[in-house]
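Recap for those who missed Tuesday's class. We walked through two folding examples back to back. For each one, the amino acid string is listed first and its predicted structure tokens come directly after. Nothing is annotated here on purpose, so try labeling regions yourself before you check the end of the notes.
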Amino acid sequence: MRTPLIAGNWKMHKTLPEARELVGAIRTGIEQLPDGRVDVVICPPYQLLFPMAKAIAGSRIMMGAQNAHFESQGAFTGEVSVPMLKDTGCTHVIIGHSERRQLFGEDNALLAKKVRAVVNAGLTAIYCVGETLEERERNETQQVVDRQIREVLAREIAPERLVIAYEPVWAIGTGRTATPSQAQEVHAFVRGKLQGIYDQRAADSVRILYGGSVKPGNAGELLAQPDIDGALVGGACLVAADFLAIIRAVFH
């Protein structure tokens, strides 16, 4: 049985006072939920990692970063390495978010290095895959996702250190959301690809999240699908009441 995972990607939002208020409210809400039924990860921007580690200390909340460089150190101005992230208390790192692909030109070859760096350091990679609107309209969703998996993942990447997030690019920040059946179809396809890389046991254990305008109003239907194991939440994670409502949807 896969434990649902709800991860909040803060993107480039929140000052320190705002972050403390948000995490305080999330922490209070999570303490009222049954233990062990859901995993929760917050992914603040870099400058908030150390203070947010203190803010979640002793709670059930885990912390992730939104990106990482694949080298452990070096002359890479403006970059942050996986060992540095581990030093802050991060347990997860988002790799390959569509905004990194679309806005910053990150390709599968680069993302393969990043996933390996995260996993080899003992952290969990939340690796993102998904198609653009044009690719979906050309019925290329499976081809795109297949390539994103095949060119980045390999057998030597420990599946227990891997989470996949399917995020259709056309649904991110647009208010549009894949229907539960559309999302389930791709999630099942991804699980089949994982079975080909690893084996059935590994494919059954890796959690696959849905990301793309997840809100309190649609979370329940999405999370009810058999191959959807949680959510990578964007805008809704910046409002404590909305993020908590999505987390509570796991229990319905």
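Example two. Treat it independently of the first, because the proteins are unrelated.
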Amino acid sequence: MSYKSLSYENTAASVIRNLEKRNMTGYYCATKEEAREKVLSLIPEGSSITWGGTETMTQLGVFDAIREKNYELIDRATAKTPEESRALYAKMVCADYFLTSANAITLDGEIVNIDGNSNRVACIAYGPSHVIIAAGMNKLAANLDAAIARVKTFACPPNAVRVGASTPCARTGVCADCLSPDSICCQTLITRKSRHDGRIIVILVGEELGF
């Protein structure tokens, strides 16, 4: 085991203890492959599954895997009209499992997400029976101020490019704290505690994933 890998494992153990204090469950997986299998092991066959925009889950190969298994998938990308999209969002809120990542996680176990349309932060906060968050160790930050700075510095600019947003950060790579019509920073969610036992599960992965 490399020094970096051992450090990741030790840090993850500390973060997991702090997540547990906040009534959230944490796991550490050293590799993407281990993390994918952990996600799948947590979801019983026949469950309904939906997700928010997440490069991390894509990189883990979770979506390819769940499409080959016996799950009910609620995929917002299949909507062809605003009416279909609204109907799908209603189903998403009632899903058994919501899959996503985090924009940042503090060493003290607080989870930070910043959204544009806010379907992702809405489902993390309320609705689906279970939320599974997978995050690479690159998402860790020392505290809330550092976490929000991390999101605006390293996550939002590439995400704006990914979704084709016409924002200052998409053009310059630097956050301008904009009020652009295309802003993807409309809602900030800080998950400091889960009120419901077993609802929020965090899988820390010993690799750099997502933004």
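Answers for example two:
The mean pLDDT is 96.
The CA atoms of residues 16 and 30 lie 14 Å apart.
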